[in-house]
Every structure is written in structure tokens, then in C-alpha cells.
Design brief:
Shape: rod-shaped
Strand order of the largest sheet: 7-8-9-6-10-11-12
Radius of gyration: 43 Å
Number of strands: 14
Structural class: alpha/beta
Strand content: 5-15%
């Protein structure tokens, strides 16, 4: 019994010693963790995270930056991808710093030296008892304190990084939400104002939902210059130049090109509603002279203060100047050549409303058969139509002329195709191209009015041009226009009197009335400038013939 009691006492003493050692090691571990390792490891982790968000010196290279792609010559927005790449790399750097601090200075140096009976600096203790105390009483607690400090620092740093990630996600979602909002605002503005940009260049005529924009510094073309992954407010070109990502911020000041044909778009494109107005008529029907008269008529209204008219581009002004010089020199405009037409572009404003007017002057041969009409893709965008009617080309009208009138008609160079034949070639294909012919307006303009006024075999055009067309044998044309189109009005104009040397300004303004009427249908307040007269158009004042200038073809309002 006595031997058993001594063994139990020894075991109890051993347990008490071990508990004391563990307690002492725990106390040392708590002291080391609380007063040293926890804050040291946390500080090193935070410092590594902060440095990992760099480089903080401008101009230093950063391998984490994605290179500019071959498609869009712009850097991706920082918030789109780079912010996450920086956050992940910085967080990993912080975790690695904690691990390195634990395994390096503490385990491999401090704790190892203590277990070998050395001081933390590596100096060997002289007294054997001191070495024993370092190895038994200090080393285990120090190792445990370093381990617990590293674990707690990792958890604390992880919690901070998680909070940072949540804040970064909120910021990312904020920028990402700004993309559809800004796109929606810009798209809504275009829809509310009825703005649909189309390329005006021959052979293209493509819709332009987003133009190519040229960087003013390096001349690179940007196809994605809108709020998106390259930036919400600004894009940064590969040359470093900042480009506004929205028209609200000044994108309209950049040079814009069609994304399909890469030809220049007018600066006004995208800022106002476009009104596409083709002039359709046979060869030598007077389309080119009529368009010149219309443009001069718009400028005449502008000089009176009723409108504000400007050329959309320098090329448009140059084209009109060249045409006017030709009319002043010869009195005639050469037939349109060169395939599909380039639109003559003008900005027309009255009050606060503005329109970008596209006037198309195609060759007369383009409406000579249905297949050629189908190739005129600009007709698909037409908001209104100007039908140029040379009634002197109609066989029924020619059959009513006497010998003297036939001679005058021949000198007026009548078209090879009459207005009724032109309309028949056009109407079916126009319905197929646009799908909205019944909602379109058509302005029918009888040209060569100065010649018609001198004919004795036909009645002179009166206030109601539609009634006059029926009187001369073109009643079927009037009925078809009224049936097929949403609205139809009629004018009789002398483009010869409105252009060339000494033009009549009143006739110029009258030549512009069909365009003003079509612009009024788009919402521009120009209806008051077109006069009244119902479906027959504005009542035309009777002309007084001048015997002394019958050959010149001039006339003046009575």
C-alpha cells in the first residue's frame, strides 16, 4: 500500500510540474502574442498590402497592367479589371508578408535560438542553468506566441481585406450601374428627338448607331467611345490622351467617321434629327437645278431672318459654290453622273428646333427600272420625297402641243422619261425599301415653269397645281400620289429663274417651299413659310410674260 501511495504522489507531482510548465508557456505565449507578434505581423501585412497597391511613383512599369488590345486602341478602365487585379495581388502580398515574418525571423531564428539555449539574437548563454531555462521555459511559449500571433494577424488581415473587397465591389457596381444609365440617357435623348444617324456617302448609306472617333493626338480610330469597360466618363487612348465617352461630355467635338466606309460624318450628326429627302426624276428633268434653287431658297429665307441655314461640311459648301458658278457661266447644270449620290447636307433651324437636311440628287438613269431603284439604299431612310415632274416629257402632253410649242419644248431639253413612268418605276420598290410609304409625304414639283408659261397649247399653271396636272392629262399621277402616300402637295417652279445670273429671290424662296413643307412634317416649325393651298400646294401667282425675253425664258411675278 505504501509503494502504491508513493507512485501516486510522484505521478501527481509530475502532473503538477507539467501543468506548471504548460501554464508558464501559455503565459509566455500570451505575452509574446499580445505585446509583440500580433501587432508586428499585422503591421507587416498591412504594409505589404499598401506597397502591393503601388507602384506609387509615376512612370514606373507595372507587370499587372494589361496591354492595349489590337481591336480598340484604349486602355481598359481601372475599375473594370485592374482594380481587382491590384486588390488580389495586394492581399496575397499581405498574407505572404505575415507568413514570411512568422517563418523567417521568429521560427528560423528566434525560436530556434531559444531551443538551443541561446538568446534570441543568437548569443550563447554562459550558465548551463540559464540555457536550460531558455530552452524549457521560454522557447515553447515563444513558439506558441508566434504561432498564435501569426494566426490572429492572418484572421485580422483577412477580415480587413474582406471588408475592402466588399467596398471595392460596391464601387465596381456603382461604376457598372453608371454604364447602362448613361447609355440609356443618351439613347433616350436620341429617341425623344428622333435622331437616326445615317452615312451620307455613296454606296454606304449605312445606319450609324456609334461612329468611329479619331484621337486628336495619335489619329487612332476608336469604335467603342461610349460608357463601358474602357471608361464611364472618359477613355484613355493608347497615346495617353483622354477622350470624352459621351456626347454630353463633349464627344461631338471629335472627328467622327462612318464605321462601315470610314468616311467623314458631319459634325452635326448625332446632335439633331436627320431628314432624308431624295429628289427623284428622269434624266434632264431639272433635279440638279431644282436642288440648287432649293438651297439658295433656304438661304434666302435665312437672310430674311426666318431660318438659320448653314452648310453641314466644307465639302457641301464647295459643291454648291461650284454648281452656282456653272449655272452663272452656262445657265444649265450638267447631268448628274458618278453612280449613287452623296447627300447635300444643310443644318436648318427655326427657333430652338434644328434639323440636319440630307438632299439626294441621283442620276435619272437610277430610276429607269426597278432593279436600279432597289440599288438606291438611301431610299430606305427617306422621310419624304420630292418627285420632280417634267410634264414636257409625258407623251400625252407632247401630243397636245402645236409646232411652235414643240420647238420651245425641244429647246427646254425635256426628260427621256415622263413623271408617270418615273412614278411607276419608283413606287413599288419604295414600299419594299421603306415599309412605310403610306406614312411618307411627297412633294411633287413641276419644273421648267418658265417654259410652261410661254406655251399656248396648254393652260398656264394656276393656283391648284394638282388640278392643272389633271387638266393636262396626268390625273392618274395625282390620284396615285394621293392614294399611296400619307400626304401630297404640289408646286410649279422655275429653277432657271431661281438660279444663274440675276436670279429672282421670290422664285428661290418658292423653290424652297417643298423642302420646308417636308421639314415641317418632321416637327420643324416651317409650315408657315409654305403658304396655304390645301393639296394643291401654295397658290401660285400668275406670271406676266415678257415679249422681249421670251427666248431667255425669264418671267416675273405679276
Amino acid at each position: 500500500m505504501k509503494g502504491g501511495g508513493d507512485g501516486d504522489a510522484e505521478a501527481l507531482v509530475l502532473v503538477l510540474v507539467l501543468l506548471a510548465l504548460f501554464g508558464w508557456a501559455g503565459a509566455v505565449a500570451v505575452a509574446v502574442c499580445v505585446f509583440r507578434t500580433l501587432w508586428e505581423f499585422t503591421g507587416r501585412g498591412v504594409q505589404a498590402v499598401w506597397q502591393g497597391l503601388g507602384p506609387w511613383q509615376a512612370g514606373r512599369s507595372d507587370p499587372r497592367l494589361a496591354p492595349v488590345g489590337s481591336g480598340e486602341p484604349a486602355h481598359l478602365a481601372y475599375w473594370w479589371r485592374q482594380s481587382w487585379a491590384d486588390a488580389v495581388s495586394a492581399g496575397l502580398a499581405g498574407m505572404r508578408a505575415v507568413r514570411s515574418a512568422f517563418t523567417g525571423p521568429w521560427l528560423n531564428r528566434t525560436v530556434r535560438n531559444l531551443f538551443r539555449g541561446r538568446r534570441p539574437s543568437g548569443v550563447r548563454a554562459r550558465a548551463p542553468l540559464y540555457r536550460l531555462l531558455l530552452a524549457v521555459l521560454i522557447a515553447p511559449g515563444t513558439a506558441a506566441g508566434a504561432l498564435v500571433g501569426a494566426a490572429l494577424a492572418t484572421l485580422l488581415l483577412g477580415a480587413v481585406l474582406l471588408l475592402f473587397a466588399l467596398l471595392l465591389a460596391v464601387v465596381w457596381l456603382g461604376w457598372a450601374a453608371g454604364v447602362p444609365v448613361l447609355r440609356g440617357v443618351e439613347r433616350g435623348r436620341l429617341l425623344l428627338r428622333g435622331i437616326r444617324v445615317k452615312c451620307p456617302h455613296p454606296g454606304c448609306y449605312a445606319p450609324v448607331p456609334l461612329a468611329l472617333h479619331r484621337c486628336p493626338d495619335c489619329r487612332s480610330l476608336h469604335a467603342e467611345l461610349r460608357p463601358g469597360r474602357y471608361g464611364v466618363l472618359w477613355h484613355v487612348c493608347r497615346c495617353g490622351h483622354r477622350l470624352p465617352a459621351s456626347r454630353l461630355l463633349g464627344r461631338g467635338k471629335l472627328t467622327a467617321l462612318c464605321p462601315r466606309c470610314e468616311q467623314f460624318l458631319p459634325p452635326a450628326a448625332g446632335t439633331m434629327r436627320v431628314v432624308h429627302t431624295p429628289l427623284v426624276g428622269g434624266t434632264s428633268s431639272g433635279k440638279t437645278m431644282l436642288m440648287a434653287a432649293m438651297v439658295e431658297g433656304l438661304h434666302s429665307w435665312s437672310r430674311q431672318g426666318e431660318l438659320r441655314v448653314e452648310y453641314a461640311t466644307v465639302d457641301d459648301q464647295r459643291t454648291q459654290t461650284g454648281l452656282n458658278q456653272e449655272l452663272n457661266r452656262t445657265g444649265w447644270a450638267h447631268a448628274t453622273t458618278g453612280g449613287q449620290p452623296r447627300a447635300m447636307m444643310l443644318t436648318v433651324a427655326r427657333g430652338r428646333r434644328r434639323r440636319l437636311l440630307y438632299l439626294y440628287d441621283p442620276m435619272g438613269e437610277q430610276v429607269s427600272d426597278a432593279e436600279r431603284v432597289r440599288a438606291q439604299q438611301y431610299l430606305a431612310h427617306a422621310d419624304g420625297l420630292v418627285l420632280v415632274a417634267d410634264v414636257l416629257a409625258d407623251p400625252r402632253v407632247r401630243g397636245r402641243l402645236g409646232p411652235a410649242d414643240t420647238e420651245r419644248t425641244d429647246r427646254a431639253r425635256p426628260s427621256a422619261q415622263g413623271p408617270w413612268e418615273t412614278y411607276q418605276r419608283l413606287t413599288g420598290e419604295l414600299a419594299a425599301l421603306t415599309g412605310r410609304r403610306s406614312r411618307m409625304s411627297v412633294a411633287t414639283v413641276v419644273t421648267k415653269r418658265d417654259v410652261l408659261d410661254r406655251l399656248t397649247s396648254l393652260p398656264a399653271p394656276g393656283p391648284r397645281i394638282d388640278d392643272w396636272l389633271a387638266d393636262v392629262g396626268l390625273g392618274a399621277l395625282v390620284r396615285a400620289l394621293g392614294h399611296d402616300f400619307g400626304a401630297a402637295r404640289y408646286w410649279a417652279v422655275s429653277a432657271h429663274a431661281a438660279t444663274g445670273t440675276g436670279p429672282l429671290e421670290s422664285e428661290q424662296r418658292r423653290a424652297a417651299e417643298p423642302v420646308l413643307w417636308l421639314l415641317a412634317a418632321s416637327g420643324l416649325r416651317t409650315g408657315a413659310l409654305t403658304g396655304s393651298g390645301g393639296s394643291g400646294g401654295r397658290p401660285s401667282r400668275q406670271r406676266r410674260r415678257r415679249p422681249d425675253d421670251a427666248e431667255a425664258g425669264r418671267y416675273s411675278p405679276a
